Amino acid sequence: MKIAFFALALGISLGSAAAEDTSVPYPIKDVHWGFEGPIGTYDRGALQRGFQVYKEVCSACHSLNLVGFHDLAAPGGPGFSEAQAKAIAAGYKIIAGPNDKGETTDANGNPLTRPGILADHFPPPFPNEEAARASNGGALPPDLSLIEKARAGGAAYVYSIVTGFGQEPPPGFKVQQGKYYNPYFAGRNISMPPPLTADSVTFSDGTKASVEQEAHDVATFLAWASEPKLEERHRTGLEVMAFLALLAGLLFLTYRKVWKDEH
Amino acid sequence: MAGQSTYVPATGFTRWLDKRLPILRLAHDTMTTFPTPRNLNVWYTFGGILTFCLGVQIVTGIVLAMHYVPNADLAFDSVDTIMRDVNYGWLIRTVHATGASMFFLAVYLHMFRGLYYGSYKAPREVIWILGVLIYLLMMGTAFFGYVLPWGQMSFWGATVITSLFSALDQIIPHLGTAITTWLWGGFAVGDATLNRFFSLHYLLPFVIAGVVGLHIWALHVPGNNNPLGIDVKGPQDTLSFHPYYTAKDAFYLSLFVILFAGFVFFAPDFFGNPDNSIQANPLVTPPDIVPEWYLLPFYAMLRSVPQKLIGVLVLVGALVTLFFVPWLDTSKVRSCRFRPLMKQFFWLFAADCLMLGYVGSQSADAALNLGGTQLPLVWLARLGTAYFYAFFWLLMPLIGLIEKPKPLPDSIAKPVLGGKGERK
To answer: Could you give the number of structural domains in chain B?
Structure first.
């Protein structure tokens, strides 16, 4: 509120004639989410579709190190059954070894792997930071496990970034070699190419995969990845508040009764 | 004021125990029959609230320490594991992190209440000094605790604060650097630093608990001050602590807990900084290094001086000033209710602290736009710092000498039970 007020004052005083200040990013888009507010919950459909977007698009470059396959079947999550989560885990290859002969690589020199199980976390797309940078023009794609806690604006920030491509840079703004113009990103030069296009995934529930839909769903999925206990927090919070309101009421009556003759 | 003990052991066992360890007598005399001024208002409930806060931090902290790993490579992930996989870990950690802010909120209200009603004045100087000591210990504990999650703000906050000692290089070459190296246990904030900060973070709360014991002991010698700031004249002025103040404290504590729970369950990241969800990286400096809100006024003071050593001295001086408050105030009257001039400067001081906090939260080169002219915030910080010092070292001694206080009531009982304007 205060920031908006100062920004407004600044805007008025600078006037509309001034050139756009490209050193600051655009304010993030005003998007609203079902998991906001004191009783908010995640949209299961959006979580499952968002998981699909992460798996088929984002995970090519971005790790999700802190999230386990068992989380996919946990209460308050995307609502996959345990069998589905097991099947998803089994689709990933986890670095294994040494085997009982002490080998860590197969005959071709590749690391030994095994299918994932529920206890595993999502394996990273690159074996180390150097490999990730080498494949991404020197930039490091951040781990997405806590991305929406680590950026002011959370889900709306992620939504703004992935839908913020394709705009014409203001005159005089230089888009650096190998980078893309994205006015929602600090500095506006982003190393990530536009990740989403219409129909870049085919949703199994028949939802039309527009860029906005994909962005909404993956932002929801990453909100859950950042805080898988949000629904439990909200539910517990309401119970605790109901209890505290009752307790405070009783304590107030006690206080009044004790002090009745002494005020 | 403590008077004769009225404790009568009721059973054979308590009679036996009373002759050997009169702990029940102590509890009875200090927590049950203790004569307490009958006019204590809501601002006097923060003593109990603070005790609650300390208890919550210790209990949640002990549980967190069972799961936390003080290792630069593992700390960040261990905290995340608490949030994701430990049973109710998300709740325990959120209560602990929010609890630090609630603790400081309560302690600031407690301190401003003491300033307003003159609770630091004779015969309560030692209570005040012990309180300032607790406040400083709290700051240290909070600082060490903030480093433990090993996020970006943890790491860089630790770097900035410990580097303050390097200003001593300007007095004796290499002295400051030697001290920072010794504090870090290396040539940068790292694994050794994290380990010792964890150890100290676990130790200091128990030191605080000890000083709180002294603070309460010292309080029980003269008894509570009160909003009128006049001495208790007799039993008609007091009520027994139990049930009157236990009932009152319990009710206001429950309101405080509702606020506390509101943040925990519905705005757990309100006091947090997004950068602390990024693992510490010594190679990447965040654009703005901001301390937690409760340290912001002092951060603003530090940055208001371009010369580092003097900036550090200004910061330390502001804290040390608090120890001298009992002797800086020359007024015979305690409560600001009867000090028309001091009351105004008190509220100006409260506003000054808030303004310094705001300035401390902004980036160092920020400016306020006043109808086209840019007012660099650093000048506001300088003004605020000057007023902070002037309030204690100039206005407090001076106003006490020139101010004409309003007439004091004859006794606590009279306005409370008789008059209208002074009802509780």
So the answer is: 1
Going by C-alpha positions, the residue among B246, B250, B238 that lies closest to residue B417 is B238
Integer Cα distance of B98 and B60 in angstroms: 11
- CB-based contact, A231 to chain B, within 8 Å: no
Share of chain B above pLDDT 70, in %: 97
Amino acid symbol at A178: G
Q: Which of A38, A233, A255 sits opposite B247 (nearest CB)?
A: A255
pLDDT digits (tens, 9 = 90+) for A181-233: 999 999 999 999 999 999 989 999 999 999 999 999 999 999 999 999 999 99
**B205 to chain A, closest Cα gap in Å:** 27
pLDDT in tens, B188-218: 999 999 999 999 999 999 999 999 999 999 9
Which residues in chain B are contacts of A71 at CB distance < 8 A?
84
Residues of B with CB below 8 A from A245's CB?
258
CATH code, domain with B164: 1.20.810.10
Determine whether the interchain pair A255/B90 forms a contact, defined as Cβ–Cβ distance below 8 Å: no
Residue A108 reports pLDDT greater than 80: yes
Q: Do B84 and A229 touch (CB under 8 A)?
A: yes
Kindly state whether residue B342 falls inside one of the protein's structural domains. Answer: no
Residue B248 lies in a domain: yes
Calpha distance A169→A181 (Å, rounded): 7
Q: How far is CA A221 from CA A11, A36, A42, B178, in A?
A: 36, 14, 9, 49
A237 to B266: CB separation less than 8 angstroms, yes or no? yes
Count of Cβ atoms closer than 10 Å to residue A127 Cβ: 11
User: Confidence band (pLDDT; 50, 70, 90) for A97?
Assistant: confident
Q: Name the nearest CA neighbour of A64 among A92, A41, A38.
A: A92
Mutate to test the interface with B, among A36, A252, A253, A260 (most CBs of B within 10 A): A252
Residue B148 φ then ψ, to 5°:
-60, -40
Percent above pLDDT 90 for chain A = 87
Which chain A positions have a beta carbon within 8 Å of B35's beta carbon? none
Cα separation, B197 vs B199, in Å, equals: 5
Domains and CATH numbers, chain A: 21-41+51-65+143-234 (1.10.760.10)
Chain B residue with minimum CA distance to A142: B278
Rounded to whole angstroms, the Cα distance separating B135 from B295 reads 11
Structural domain of B186: 37-270
Domain membership of residue B260 (yes or no) is yes
Question: Distance, in angstroms, between A125 CA and closest chain B CA?
Answer: 19
Rounded to whole angstroms, how far apart are CA atoms B154 and B151? 5
User: Helix, strand, coil shares of chain B as percentages rounded to 5?
Assistant: 65, 5, 30
Contact B167, B307 (CB under 8 A): no
Closest by CA position to B212, among listed B288, B150, B130: B130
Chain B positions touching A248 (Cβ under 8 A) are: 251, 254-255, 258
pTM above 0.90, yes or no: yes
Name the minimum distance, in Å, from the CA of A150 to any CA of chain B.
Answer: 4
For residue range B277-314, list pLDDT tens digits in order: 999 999 999 988 999 999 999 999 999 999 999 999 99
Tell me, yes or no, whether B282 lies in a domain: no
- B237-281 pLDDT, tens digit each: 999 999 999 999 999 999 999 999 999 999 999 999 999 999 999
For the record, the structure tokens of A164 come out as 């913020």
Rounded to 10 degrees, the C-alpha dihedral B118/B119/B124/B129 comes to -100
CA dist., res. A179 & res. A191, Å (int): 5
How close, in Å, is residue A254 to chain B by CA atoms?
7
